[in-house]
Records
---
Amino acid sequence: MTKEEKAKYIDDLTAELTQAGVFYLADTSELSVEVINNLRRKCFQSGVTLKVVKNTLLYKAMERVEGIDYGQLSEVLAGPTSIMFAEVGNVPAKIIQEFRKKNAKPILKGAFVGEAIFIGDNQLETLANIKSKDELLGEIVGLLQSPAKNVISALKGQGGKIAGILKTLEERA
């Protein structure tokens, strides 16, 4: 790569990091071309972008992003690194978990999810269990609707009983 190509690559990576609220760093080395293509396909179907990056160029791009401290993520930039950009925090973790049922890799090096930093493959389960914004909103709406539904059903049920009792009393008279 020429200096101009490297500078352009770093600028592009910086722009992607700036826009991304979620990205994962993974080790996909030693995967065959067929297997890595299957992983790319799975990522594409799930709305995740997978790229192999050079560590030094990624490090420089991370340094250029203003207002965000990637902390310990720069420490995991050793050996072959792939970056997975996503819009939903748990999707890449779920892809990795599913993919590892048949393959030894990818191995999670680290992740950046909405200002939070996760380091190490042992964080994969935690990341997979993070709820998306839509899931959280659905739970909140469900919790808010639940008391109202209970009150309405109680009123309907009690109202039916009262009407039944009154009708029975009326028929007796």
---
Amino acid sequence: MKRLPRIIKITSITDLVVQTLWNNGELREIDFKPMLAAWKANNEQIYDPLQEKKVFETIAVSEDHALYWPNVSIELSFNGITRKCPLEIDPDVLYEKSKLVGGYGHSHIGQLLKAARLKAGLSQKEVAMNSGTSRTYISRIENEHSDIQFDVFYKIVKLGMGKDLKVSIE
């Protein structure tokens, strides 16, 4: 099962556009202007305070990796109990409404591994046997269904394919 992306931190806020770093390595931009307009058109008054720039800019990342406004509270009722909570927006909704502006993403690693394996003329089974992993694990990495730790990636490249791994940070 593929893990759902979650927000790690806010990198910038400019004119109702919030740039966020996600746990999948992506840098994404969320433009709140259309969302605020839609909420206003639908008379969803809980979002009205966000129209004020000073209030909007208090946005933060919650422990649940969502975006929230600590100074804007809403009332939630469950089983007859009403509680005040900060206004929060689900990260799944935000991810869907955001656009990719940078980052590495998981798919890049899987694609790199697959391209190198095919170029070397090796099967997934051969790479797995040489690196002490399983063919299923190699397949899951190549198809973006599994995360990979750097030391395991190094082992697959070095032992599994007999290749050198070079990493640079620029």
---
Amino acid sequence: MEEALYDMGSKRRFVGIELNEDAILDETTILEFRHLLECHGLTDRIFSEVNALVRERGLLLREGTLVDATLINAPSSTKSASGTRDPEMSQTRKGNQWYFGMKAHIGVHADSGLVHTLLGTTARTADIAVFDELLHGDEEGVSADRGYDYPQARE
């Protein structure tokens, strides 16, 4: 996230940071904030509240869903509070490249591009393992890449 904030103006605008005026948080601070939110059960509550507001305003349609996953790289030295490797992170290989970190699995409304489902897993979790959890159940169609070799994922 730290690197993305430096590289992408859209992410800086989303969080309200001006590159030449505001300090960008380092990855350790961002990770500690994420753990604080998780510790208090706020990530799911915040995401649910945002989705409820989007639905209430009629911005989220339900016809189709796009599903995909992305690796979130972390330094292999990332440690938990107990001084061990964070159990939510693991190593995986994509092509000939090894990664350490987490994976974000995302369900997106096909027409608007709005995210309706977001799941975080260890990097080694297979995409298909959480496929059903990425769907809201009212889809008329689902689009996915080869990582989701599943009959419902084909149009």
---
Amino acid sequence: MNHNIILIGYMGSGKSTVAKELHIKTGVEIIDTDKMLVKEQGRSINEIFQTDGEAAFRKLETELLRRLSEGESNYILSTGGGMPVREENRAILKSLGTVFFLKADTDTILERVKEDTQRPLLQGTDQRAKITAMLKERTPMYELAADHVIETDGKTVEEVVSEILCLARK
């Protein structure tokens, strides 16, 4: 049985921040799929999207998950926000460990990402409308992939981490 902690959720839901705090509390290695893909591809996610398109990026994510499923365990996996959109990815994520969906509402996400220019799917004018529409589309897929849903709105990072660690021990 894998004891990996898998963090999924929309961009700005807190995956990277929570992963860092989990690492501090547990000493367990973090694997950030976006950072790993940027390193492997030698270009930013924005560049991959612009040059190859979203479908090609999603394929790279699936290939990365397949490789992770063949390797060692005992890590915290922080995923890109769109990774659970593909059905195959949801199945692989579940096989890798316990999946936690970090759920945040539009206002929380907007506050966290409003200054970030490195998110290709939020480029343009009406970020609130884009976030709302994408959450409506993706939330059911996140819920299908998740073993546990953690509401992050109004919670500190420490509260979210405590909740995850409590559930992961069960």
